Amino acid sequence: MLNVCSFLVTLAALDLAIIVSASQPSQQSEAIAHALQSGGLRAAARVAGHYETYHTTQSEALADDLTELQSISDSIVVARVKGRLSSALSPSGDSISTDYGLEVDESIRGRLHASAVFRLRLPGGAVVFEDGTTATVRTDDLERIVPGRRYVLFLKDLSDHELLSLGLQSAFGFKADEATIDPLAATDTPIVIRYRGSLSGMFLQSVRFIANQKR
């Protein structure tokens, strides 16, 4: 009888351990969600140790062609990515941005002259806080911008950096052999459908032509 009782007690303890174990992820998720609301990414990292999330940056506005892109852009350049510079938490604490250094190969329109080096600010990145905790925001933007590659970029000018005029719809990479164009936007957008695989020379001619049109 004693053995039976001991077995039942052990089963009950095991069931309780399973219930507690199963509830822990849920409790931590709730704690992280509350921390995000009250203190942003810094607070979420304090709870999780390392907090990581994914943000989609696909704009609801869709450009149909290069003419639409040029109409909302201050500068248009062909530039090569030199490397990643730094990541920073936003003043609101709920997002991270990363700066890349780029060098202009060709200035098609705007304030950036040939050989100029400028900062391109993209959403996403990783930061380490003073207490050793970290926060990472993953985005398509950072995954598709590759150091060493050249891009045709439609840009918004800010005081000390540039932004893509319409997210990844504003960026067109050159394939490895630089013979054809590889749009960076999501594959189902009009921009990608229209220009994917375009010959680089013809694409650049089109960009130079539309750059001279009135905005």
Keywords:
three-stranded mixed sheet, seven-stranded antiparallel sheet, 215 residues, 5 helices, 2 domains, alpha+beta, 33% strand
Describe the structure.
- The protein has 215 residues and is an alpha+beta fold.
- The protein folds into two domains: 2-48, no CATH class; 66-84 and 100-120 and 144-211, no CATH class.
- It is built from five helices and ten strands, in the order αβαβββββαββββαα.
- Strands 2, 3, 4, 7, 8, 9 and 10 form a seven-stranded antiparallel sheet that branches. The chain has a three-stranded mixed sheet with strand order 1-6-5.
- A hairpin with a 7-residue loop joins β3 and β4.
- The longest helix is centred in the N-terminal third of the chain and has 47 residues, at 2-48.
- The termini are far apart.
- Mean pLDDT is 86; it is low at 4-23.
Summarize the structure.
The chain is an alpha+beta fold and 215 residues long. Helices cover 35% and strands 33% of the residues. Residues 4-23 have low confidence and may be disordered.
Give the percentage of residues in beta strands.
Answer: 25-35%
End-to-end separation: 90 Å
Described by the principal axes of the CA atoms, the overall outline is elongated
Total helix count? 5
**Domain module count:** 2
Order of helices and strands: HEHEEEEEHEEEEHH
Q: What is the element layout, followed by pairings?
A:
Elements (H helix, E strand, L loop, with lengths): L1 H47 L1 E5 L11 H6 L3 E15 L6 E14 L7 E7 L1 E4 L5 E5 L1 H5 L5 E8 L4 E7 L2 E4 L6 E3 L6 H6 L4 H12 L4
